[in-house]
Amino acid sequence: MTLPAWLAAIKFNDDGLIPAIAQDHKSGRILMMAWMNAEALQLTAQTQTAVYFSRSRAKLWHKGESSGHTQTVHDIRLDCDADVIVLSVTQAGGIACHTGRESCFYQRLDLSGQTPEWQTVDKVLKDPADIYHSSDAAKSIPKTNETQANDVIPSDANHSHSHHDNDTTNRSILQQLDGVLAERKQADADSSYVASLYAKGLNKILEKVGEESTESIIAAKDFANCDENSNKAQYDDARHELIYEVADVWFHTLVGLAWFDIESDAVLNELGRRFGLSGIDEKAAR
Question: Is 114 exposed, middle or buried (0-12, 13-18, 19+ CB in 10 A)?
Fold first, then answer.
Protein backbone atom coordinates (compact mmCIF):
# COMPACT_ATOMS: atom_id res chain seq x y z
CA MET A 1 0.00 0.00 0.00
CA THR A 2 1.43 3.36 -1.08
CA LEU A 3 1.13 6.01 1.61
CA PRO A 4 0.58 9.68 0.82
CA ALA A 5 3.78 11.75 1.09
CA TRP A 6 2.91 13.24 4.47
CA LEU A 7 2.40 9.79 6.00
CA ALA A 8 5.44 8.31 4.25
CA ALA A 9 7.58 10.95 5.97
CA ILE A 10 6.77 9.41 9.37
CA LYS A 11 9.07 6.81 10.93
CA PHE A 12 6.69 4.16 12.24
CA ASN A 13 8.29 1.48 14.42
CA ASP A 14 8.67 -2.19 13.47
CA ASP A 15 5.04 -2.78 14.47
CA GLY A 16 3.86 0.02 12.18
CA LEU A 17 3.09 2.32 15.12
CA ILE A 18 4.09 5.75 16.38
CA PRO A 19 3.60 7.20 19.89
CA ALA A 20 1.06 10.02 20.00
CA ILE A 21 0.92 12.51 22.87
CA ALA A 22 -2.33 14.39 23.47
CA GLN A 23 -1.89 17.89 24.93
CA ASP A 24 -4.62 20.26 26.12
CA HIS A 25 -5.15 22.96 23.51
CA LYS A 26 -5.46 25.78 26.07
CA SER A 27 -3.43 24.81 29.14
CA GLY A 28 -0.73 22.82 27.37
CA ARG A 29 -0.99 20.02 29.92
CA ILE A 30 -0.05 16.52 28.73
CA LEU A 31 -3.24 14.46 28.91
CA MET A 32 -2.25 11.03 27.68
CA MET A 33 -0.02 8.98 25.42
CA ALA A 34 -1.29 6.31 23.03
CA TRP A 35 -0.27 4.67 19.76
CA MET A 36 -1.28 5.33 16.17
CA ASN A 37 -0.77 3.40 12.98
CA ALA A 38 -0.98 5.04 9.56
CA GLU A 39 -4.74 4.51 9.30
CA ALA A 40 -5.41 5.96 12.74
CA LEU A 41 -3.36 9.05 11.97
CA GLN A 42 -5.03 9.48 8.58
CA LEU A 43 -8.49 9.21 10.16
CA THR A 44 -7.47 11.67 12.88
CA ALA A 45 -6.43 14.18 10.22
CA GLN A 46 -9.60 13.61 8.20
CA THR A 47 -12.10 13.73 11.06
CA GLN A 48 -10.18 16.12 13.33
CA THR A 49 -11.02 13.81 16.23
CA ALA A 50 -8.45 11.55 17.89
CA VAL A 51 -8.30 7.97 16.63
CA TYR A 52 -5.69 5.65 18.13
CA PHE A 53 -4.58 2.04 17.73
CA SER A 54 -5.13 -0.36 20.63
CA ARG A 55 -2.25 -2.82 20.91
CA SER A 56 -4.14 -5.02 23.37
CA ARG A 57 -7.21 -5.32 21.12
CA ALA A 58 -5.27 -4.98 17.86
CA LYS A 59 -7.73 -2.50 16.39
CA LEU A 60 -8.45 1.15 15.88
CA TRP A 61 -10.26 2.95 18.68
CA HIS A 62 -11.91 6.32 18.61
CA LYS A 63 -10.99 8.13 21.81
CA GLY A 64 -14.17 8.28 23.88
CA GLU A 65 -15.95 5.41 22.13
CA SER A 66 -16.78 3.86 25.51
CA SER A 67 -16.58 6.88 27.82
CA GLY A 68 -17.95 9.64 25.59
CA HIS A 69 -14.78 11.66 26.34
CA THR A 70 -13.79 12.38 22.76
CA GLN A 71 -10.88 14.60 21.68
CA THR A 72 -11.27 17.36 19.10
CA VAL A 73 -7.93 17.82 17.35
CA HIS A 74 -6.77 21.38 16.59
CA ASP A 75 -3.17 20.74 15.58
CA ILE A 76 -0.93 17.77 14.72
CA ARG A 77 2.82 18.08 15.07
CA LEU A 78 5.74 15.75 14.25
CA ASP A 79 9.06 15.85 16.09
CA CYS A 80 12.48 16.34 14.50
CA ASP A 81 13.16 12.60 14.27
CA ALA A 82 9.73 12.02 12.71
CA ASP A 83 8.94 9.30 15.27
CA VAL A 84 6.62 11.05 17.77
CA ILE A 85 3.29 12.82 17.19
CA VAL A 86 1.84 15.57 19.40
CA LEU A 87 -1.86 16.37 19.19
CA SER A 88 -3.29 19.64 20.47
CA VAL A 89 -6.80 18.72 21.60
CA THR A 90 -9.92 19.84 23.36
CA GLN A 91 -10.87 17.05 25.75
CA ALA A 92 -14.62 16.44 26.04
CA GLY A 93 -15.69 16.23 29.65
CA GLY A 94 -12.26 17.35 30.84
CA ILE A 95 -11.33 13.71 31.50
CA ALA A 96 -8.69 11.90 29.42
CA CYS A 97 -7.72 9.08 31.79
CA HIS A 98 -9.64 5.83 32.31
CA THR A 99 -9.29 6.45 36.07
CA GLY A 100 -11.61 9.46 35.79
CA ARG A 101 -8.84 12.04 36.06
CA GLU A 102 -8.01 14.95 33.77
CA SER A 103 -4.68 13.45 32.74
CA CYS A 104 -3.12 9.98 32.70
CA PHE A 105 -0.02 11.62 34.20
CA TYR A 106 -1.40 12.09 37.69
CA GLN A 107 1.49 10.58 39.65
CA ARG A 108 4.40 12.81 40.68
CA LEU A 109 7.78 11.59 41.90
CA ASP A 110 8.38 13.05 45.36
CA LEU A 111 12.10 13.60 45.92
CA SER A 112 11.80 15.32 49.29
CA GLY A 113 12.42 12.20 51.37
CA GLN A 114 15.32 9.78 51.56
CA THR A 115 13.67 7.47 49.05
CA PRO A 116 11.87 8.73 45.90
CA GLU A 117 8.19 7.87 46.03
CA TRP A 118 5.32 8.19 43.59
CA GLN A 119 2.45 10.30 44.88
CA THR A 120 -1.02 10.69 43.38
CA VAL A 121 -1.53 14.44 42.97
CA ASP A 122 -4.71 14.65 40.85
CA LYS A 123 -8.19 13.92 42.14
CA VAL A 124 -10.72 11.68 40.42
CA LEU A 125 -13.25 13.90 38.65
CA LYS A 126 -15.68 11.09 37.91
CA ASP A 127 -15.97 7.50 39.11
CA PRO A 128 -14.81 5.17 36.29
CA ALA A 129 -17.77 2.89 37.06
CA ASP A 130 -20.10 5.74 36.13
CA ILE A 131 -18.10 6.56 32.99
CA TYR A 132 -17.89 3.12 31.42
CA HIS A 133 -21.32 1.83 32.34
CA SER A 134 -23.09 4.72 30.66
CA SER A 135 -25.33 3.32 27.92
CA ASP A 136 -25.43 6.73 26.23
CA ALA A 137 -21.68 7.16 25.86
CA ALA A 138 -21.08 4.96 22.84
CA LYS A 139 -24.19 6.08 21.00
CA SER A 140 -22.79 9.52 20.22
CA ILE A 141 -19.47 8.25 18.82
CA PRO A 142 -19.16 8.05 15.01
CA LYS A 143 -17.74 4.83 13.59
CA THR A 144 -14.19 5.29 12.32
CA ASN A 145 -14.05 2.20 10.14
CA GLU A 146 -16.65 -0.58 10.27
CA THR A 147 -14.21 -3.39 9.58
CA GLN A 148 -11.61 -2.21 12.07
CA ALA A 149 -14.20 -1.32 14.69
CA ASN A 150 -15.27 -4.96 14.77
CA ASP A 151 -11.76 -6.34 14.31
CA VAL A 152 -11.79 -8.21 17.59
CA ILE A 153 -14.44 -7.41 20.20
CA PRO A 154 -15.89 -4.00 21.12
CA SER A 155 -14.32 -2.83 24.38
CA ASP A 156 -17.69 -2.46 26.08
CA ALA A 157 -19.25 -5.67 24.73
CA ASN A 158 -19.49 -7.35 28.12
CA HIS A 159 -21.47 -4.49 29.68
CA SER A 160 -24.63 -5.60 27.91
CA HIS A 161 -24.61 -9.12 29.39
CA SER A 162 -25.79 -10.18 32.82
CA HIS A 163 -23.59 -12.24 35.13
CA HIS A 164 -25.19 -15.59 34.29
CA ASP A 165 -24.34 -15.04 30.61
CA ASN A 166 -20.61 -14.54 31.27
CA ASP A 167 -19.56 -18.09 30.38
CA THR A 168 -21.43 -17.99 27.07
CA THR A 169 -20.16 -14.48 26.34
CA ASN A 170 -16.53 -15.32 27.08
CA ARG A 171 -16.72 -18.45 24.96
CA SER A 172 -18.26 -16.40 22.14
CA ILE A 173 -15.43 -13.87 22.43
CA LEU A 174 -12.84 -16.62 22.00
CA GLN A 175 -14.71 -18.07 19.03
CA GLN A 176 -14.95 -14.63 17.42
CA LEU A 177 -11.24 -14.13 18.03
CA ASP A 178 -10.51 -17.47 16.37
CA GLY A 179 -12.42 -16.31 13.30
CA VAL A 180 -10.71 -12.93 13.14
CA LEU A 181 -7.24 -14.41 13.60
CA ALA A 182 -7.89 -16.94 10.83
CA GLU A 183 -9.07 -14.19 8.47
CA ARG A 184 -6.04 -12.02 9.18
CA LYS A 185 -3.72 -14.77 7.90
CA GLN A 186 -4.93 -13.92 4.40
CA ALA A 187 -4.96 -10.14 4.88
CA ASP A 188 -2.47 -7.57 3.65
CA ALA A 189 0.28 -6.87 6.18
CA ASP A 190 -0.60 -3.16 6.22
CA SER A 191 -4.29 -3.77 6.91
CA SER A 192 -4.09 -4.73 10.59
CA TYR A 193 -1.76 -5.36 13.50
CA VAL A 194 -2.40 -9.13 13.46
CA ALA A 195 -1.75 -9.36 9.72
CA SER A 196 1.54 -7.51 10.26
CA LEU A 197 2.52 -10.05 12.93
CA TYR A 198 1.81 -12.93 10.56
CA ALA A 199 3.89 -11.24 7.87
CA LYS A 200 6.86 -10.94 10.25
CA GLY A 201 6.69 -14.65 11.05
CA LEU A 202 6.49 -16.98 14.02
CA ASN A 203 9.60 -15.62 15.75
CA LYS A 204 8.06 -12.14 15.96
CA ILE A 205 4.81 -13.58 17.37
CA LEU A 206 6.73 -15.58 20.00
CA GLU A 207 8.80 -12.50 20.80
CA LYS A 208 5.57 -10.60 21.52
CA VAL A 209 4.31 -13.43 23.76
CA GLY A 210 7.55 -13.26 25.74
CA GLU A 211 7.48 -9.46 25.90
CA GLU A 212 3.89 -9.34 27.13
CA SER A 213 4.55 -12.15 29.63
CA THR A 214 7.40 -10.13 31.12
CA GLU A 215 5.20 -7.05 31.35
CA SER A 216 2.48 -9.06 33.11
CA ILE A 217 5.03 -10.32 35.64
CA ILE A 218 6.13 -6.74 36.34
CA ALA A 219 2.50 -5.66 36.68
CA ALA A 220 1.83 -8.53 39.11
CA LYS A 221 4.84 -7.56 41.23
CA ASP A 222 3.69 -3.93 41.26
CA PHE A 223 0.17 -4.97 42.28
CA ALA A 224 1.53 -7.18 45.05
CA ASN A 225 3.25 -4.14 46.54
CA CYS A 226 0.04 -2.08 46.68
CA ASP A 227 -2.04 -1.65 49.81
CA GLU A 228 -5.74 -1.11 49.14
CA ASN A 229 -6.26 0.54 52.52
CA SER A 230 -3.43 3.07 52.30
CA ASN A 231 -3.85 4.11 48.65
CA LYS A 232 -7.06 2.90 46.99
CA ALA A 233 -6.44 4.75 43.71
CA GLN A 234 -2.97 3.27 43.29
CA TYR A 235 -4.32 -0.18 44.18
CA ASP A 236 -7.11 0.07 41.57
CA ASP A 237 -4.70 1.29 38.90
CA ALA A 238 -2.25 -1.54 39.59
CA ARG A 239 -5.07 -4.09 39.47
CA HIS A 240 -6.28 -2.72 36.13
CA GLU A 241 -2.72 -2.76 34.76
CA LEU A 242 -2.29 -6.43 35.68
CA ILE A 243 -5.57 -7.36 33.97
CA TYR A 244 -4.55 -5.31 30.91
CA GLU A 245 -1.14 -6.99 30.63
CA VAL A 246 -2.53 -10.51 31.10
CA ALA A 247 -5.06 -9.77 28.34
CA ASP A 248 -2.09 -8.89 26.11
CA VAL A 249 -0.46 -12.24 26.95
CA TRP A 250 -3.64 -14.17 26.19
CA PHE A 251 -4.21 -12.34 22.95
CA HIS A 252 -0.70 -12.87 21.57
CA THR A 253 -0.76 -16.51 22.69
CA LEU A 254 -3.94 -16.97 20.66
CA VAL A 255 -2.15 -15.41 17.67
CA GLY A 256 0.59 -17.99 18.17
CA LEU A 257 -1.93 -20.83 18.27
CA ALA A 258 -3.64 -19.50 15.15
CA TRP A 259 -0.29 -19.61 13.35
CA PHE A 260 -0.55 -23.41 13.70
CA ASP A 261 -4.30 -23.41 12.89
CA ILE A 262 -5.13 -24.36 16.47
CA GLU A 263 -8.34 -22.82 17.79
CA SER A 264 -9.00 -21.77 21.37
CA ASP A 265 -11.45 -24.67 21.84
CA ALA A 266 -8.50 -27.06 21.84
CA VAL A 267 -7.09 -25.34 24.93
CA LEU A 268 -10.52 -25.13 26.58
CA ASN A 269 -11.05 -28.84 25.96
CA GLU A 270 -7.66 -29.64 27.49
CA LEU A 271 -8.50 -27.57 30.56
CA GLY A 272 -11.83 -29.35 30.75
CA ARG A 273 -10.07 -32.72 30.61
CA ARG A 274 -7.89 -31.69 33.55
CA PHE A 275 -10.77 -30.32 35.60
CA GLY A 276 -11.50 -32.61 38.52
CA LEU A 277 -8.12 -34.36 38.36
CA SER A 278 -5.66 -33.84 41.19
CA GLY A 279 -2.39 -32.24 40.21
CA ILE A 280 -0.50 -35.47 40.99
CA ASP A 281 -2.88 -37.62 38.93
CA GLU A 282 -2.79 -35.16 36.05
CA LYS A 283 1.02 -35.16 35.97
CA ALA A 284 1.15 -38.96 36.11
CA ALA A 285 -1.20 -39.18 33.13
CA ARG A 286 1.04 -37.09 30.88
Answer: exposed
Residue 188 corresponds to which amino acid?
D
250 burial class (0-12, 13-18, 19+ CB within 10 angstroms)? middle
Q: Where are the beta strands (DSSP E) in the chain?
A: 18-24, 30-36, 51-54, 59-62, 71-78, 85-91, 107-110, 117-120
What integer is the mean pLDDT of 8-17? Answer: 95
For the segment 121-165, what is each residue's pLDDT rounded down to a tens digit?
999 898 887 787 543 443 333 333 333 333 343 333 333 333 334
206-212: long-range contacts at Cβ-Cβ below 8 A with a sequence spacing of 24 or more? Answer: 206/256, 208/252, 208/255, 209/249, 209/252, 209/253, 209/256, 212/245, 212/248, 212/249, 212/251, 212/252
Q: What is the pTM of this model?
A: 0.50
Relative to beta strand 71-78, strand 85-91 is antiparallel
